[in-house]
Please model this.
Amino acid sequence: MVFQRKHILGLEELDAREINLVLDTAASMKEVSERDVKKVPALKGTTVVNLFFEPSTRTRSSFEIAEKRLSADVLNFTLSQSSVIKGETLLDTARNLEAMGAGVIVIRHSMSGAPWLLAKELHSSIINAGDGSHEHPSQALLDLFTIREIKGEIGGLVVVIVGDIRHSRVARSNIWGFLRLGAEVRVVGPATLIPKEIEYMDVKVFYTLEEALKDADVVIMLRIQMERQGSEYFPSLREYSKFYGLSREKLRIAKDDVSVMHPGPINRGVELSSEVADDVNSVILDQVSNGIAVRMAMLYLVASGGRNV
Amino acid sequence: MAGKVLMNSETMTETVTRITREILERNPDANKLVIVGIRTRGIHLARRLADQIEKKTGIKPPLGTLDISLYRDDLGIKDEWPELKKTDIPFTVDKKSVILVDDVIFTGRTSRAAIEAIMDFGRPSIIQLAVLVDRGHRELPIQADYTGNRIDTNTGEKVKVLLSETDGTDAVVVSQE
Amino acid sequence: MKLLIKSGRIIDPSRNIDRVENILIEEGKISSYPAETKKLEKDKKINLIDASGKTVSPGFIDMHVHLREPGYEHKETIRTGCEAGAAGGFTSLVCMPNTNPINDNASVTEYILLKARKEGIVNVFPIGAITKGEKGESLAQIGEMFEAGCVGISDDGMPVMNSKVMRHAMEYVRPFNIPVISHAEDKNLSGNGVMNEGFFSNKLGLGGIPNASEEVIVARDITLAELTGVHLHIAHVSTAGSVRLIREAKARGIRVTAEATPHHVMLTDEAVLGYDTNAKVNPPIRTAEDVEFIRDGLKDGTIDAIATDHAPHSEDEKKVEFDLAPFGISGLETALPISLKLVTEGVLTLNQLIEKLTFNPAQIVNIDRGTLMVGAKADLVIFDTEKAFTVDRMKFRSKGKNSPFHGWKLTGHVEYTIVGGEIVYSA
Model:
């Protein structure tokens, strides 16, 4: 199968075959990361710009390592949102970078849809590294990759996503990804953080964690962003943690071999009790190292991929 | 398949046997040999060579597979792009005699990529190249060390190597595209 | 100058007329409906328009436009806005006060009217602000603005959140007998919403504006209208619930009227997919159910008028992140063909549609337009209901090219727009 896309903007637009191709390619990329010389010349001569409008050391570093392992020339461009609003428009900034020869632009932006704007107006390949409350495809792909490695198969799994579904791009991308590969997806959180009509995305909605965890194979804990939720959505972190934090007792409701994931960074004692965090740390660190292979795959596929879409 | 049959099952077996002999003549110390097949059909030919070497010497050389996609020089230029598969070289190549195996040598670009890839895995004492068919039209100064059959083709022709492992039969067929 | 419009199908809902007639215009007024035209046609001093096969109606009145001047001349000016209006068949534009400075005192009103007289090719009727600076705190110079020519008051775009202020505005304005026009939106409920709240806002990860955001203020303003006896006009109705509330209020005899826009009766929130900022508008484009309710409301008279909420923006302002793009659709030049779809789809008769584009809005803002009775000002439009064309937003006369209807194949084409007996637009 040939990857036809020029951009990777979201999981929603990828079908199961395309997702599997990314995961298979990532498996091959993982081998490169295990070599002594962790570098191949695939993107030699290609300039990749990491255009980050939100601080995100993890995602940016992961992309940067992936780019360097593929021998791309890497340019990091990190801007604070406020300076952008006052000055140059997003399009002007991106057009400038394109004029400098950027073949691929990896963009992280606090506003949903920003990567679509670039894809519409520019010639470069665009990779979405997280846009607003919309999608975070590289995170979802690495979650899928990690779970496929552990469980062998995604189809038929029960996946529970816990927390702030309303504002989470990780949630949205994972919902699409796990659904496409045949899993059952449940979402659970305070009613204020479960958006209206989310059930039309074909997910099952729960409001109590205990109920949602029954027969769960995978639990994805979303990070509670204290700066975003404020006191409007739930009374206190203590209360949130009491109802939606994952403790060892609650985890026993899930299947014995349940995998717990977290996109990081963890608020210990809020989303996960410290003991659960340490229990599952190995999976979470797997996520991190798999992230590099998955991002290498994404970069390689858009660079080699069709000039069609 | 329509086209001229250049090699059949019998002559292919003879060819592999001859190449094996040549490899052993030039590399008397079979302990230093490692065989690396280039995806896709090179893998099966590499296994046949390794089996023959083991039969002749009693020493089973380490067998690896190489996907050269990440070393190609035409990323994003070609429309057709094969899926990236795993490279699997679970042994050291340092100070070894690496025999790269491919079915056909044409422009030489695949061989160049394979050589570069192998060098990323270590520092072999020598790299040699074995191919079943050399169809000419080189674009790089690269020659095979062991060649099954050398044929004149024009660039429009297609040289297809069929192997029992993947195609159910052993043959080399030349056809017009 | 005299003008003879021959053999057009005259539709004049103000007099319940729908028949083929000739119209003679003299000195800017409808002078007569001559049965015999042979002699007139020979008169060299009379210009002739053959309108056979065409529809002739009172010029359209758009009771909700943003002309942007003063202050935002890069988006639109009174001149370009009027040109766009003329091209759309509109002979009168009622313009909202959210300019810079805001039209919250008589000097701004006078400036707009002066500019309109000098540069505007159609009639302009300003709406004054309800509160100073549209800040929702203290009352604007309502009486003086009325004297200067304002035909209503509204804090369009920045609705009055304080119910007590709204009550006082209604009480104060009642003796002037002009309507209070409500952009019904609870800004707290809307929050950082940029589109309709629902499946598509979830999918796109965009902040949603719930229907309730409009409906709680519709309910509040109806309640206050009942309390104060003012004429309340609900602008750009977008939700099923608003239609229900208005219908019920009318049944109870409360003085409330309402308008709907072409985009709210023709699009659903799916239009935003792909982050199309040209479909970003406030109130947002809603769901199919809401569209059904609004169409029913137009049909049964709950919604009196069709108004465009023409909100032009420059291309640069719209080519940004969806969250940053300003709300608004440039609507004047697609209003007729989009509205005509309501006729072909069986929602309204042509006569009902024209009534909602002419006589009804004239009644709501109480202006002497929207009729073709003898002696009336000769504001007319001549259009072809059958002529097909493809919308090309780049060809708009408006500076605002922000249309979600770009590329649509539509029927209904304005041939002539006549203001005070003068042809101000011809196709």
Observations:
- The mean pLDDT of chain B is 92.
- The two ends of chain B are 12 Å apart (CA to CA).
- The CA atoms of residues 15 and 31 of chain B lie 23 Å apart.
